[in-house]
Amino acid sequence: MTTTKTIRPRRSALYMPCANARALEKARILDADCLLLDLEDAVAPDAKDMARDQLIAALDEGGYGARERVVRVNALSTPWGADDFAALNNLPENARPDAVLAPKVSTAAEIDALTALLPPHCELWVMVETPQAIFNIEALAARAADTPLSCFVMGTNDLAKEMQAQFVPMRAPLMTALSLALMAARMHGLTAIDGVFNDIADMAGFEAECGQGMAMGFDGKTLIHPNQLAACNRIFGPSEAEIDEARQIVAAFNAPENAGKGVLRVNGKMTELLHRDIAARRLAIAEAIAARDS
What we know:
Blueprint: E1 12-17, H1 21-26, E2 34-38, H2 48-61, E3 68-72, H3 81-89, E4 99-102, H4 108-115, E5 123-128, H5 131-135, H6 137-142, E6 149-154, H7 156-163, H8 175-187, E7 191-194, H9 203-216, E8 220-223, H10 229-236, H11 240-254, E9 263-266, E10 269-272, H12 273-293
Parallel strand pairs: 1-2, 1-8, 2-3, 3-4, 4-5, 5-6, 6-7, 7-8
Antiparallel strand pairs: 9-10
């Protein structure tokens, strides 16, 4: 399935528990690029049906503006997964979510099974949170060619649990898995969103981990509390200085006197065509953020 993908800002992806009606209401005013409307881990088994009903009512009511609405469903292997998909398919077209986020996807066959159940015109996002997924990561990403798969979301808590890894600052035990998933995503044109930071009170640690994820190349980060939004958007979004530099690079390569040149000197730095491409994408992201905020 080859399509031209619109660049959307995905700096911040905030989990919102669908069992909490107040959270679904508050999500309409939060400065999040993506709302991960959660029917899975954030909802107790005896609240699954109620949470699904509240989600459907909230989506039908609308009011989420430019925020990307992504529903994390329960796995198809659970008693609730099929009902989650059925409810989403029964929504009016204008109320359907932008994407469905599927948990614990480990094989390409699972992606195909999920695709068959998706509402029309809905993207598929998958959680990468098992060792099996990491060993199959390129095969998973390759399904983007023939399915609506568009995004990997790192499930670092579950991945650390499965690995029996310790939660340590800067995540050394997880770096191999994060890097492999990111490279597979880039190889096949997927968005890649980093995992959560668990200590809500530790803003310094959170900002450091955001900086690490941004430096690695992740598009954004999953969040567990609205207080993490401002820092996440700032760190994963281009700064004014970066935007200004990007404009200068693009303008230099577009200048008639530089037509056909592969290397230029811009602001004293040797600048190649690859830097022009990076700059152009940075400007596109900045424009998408500005459009979302307007």
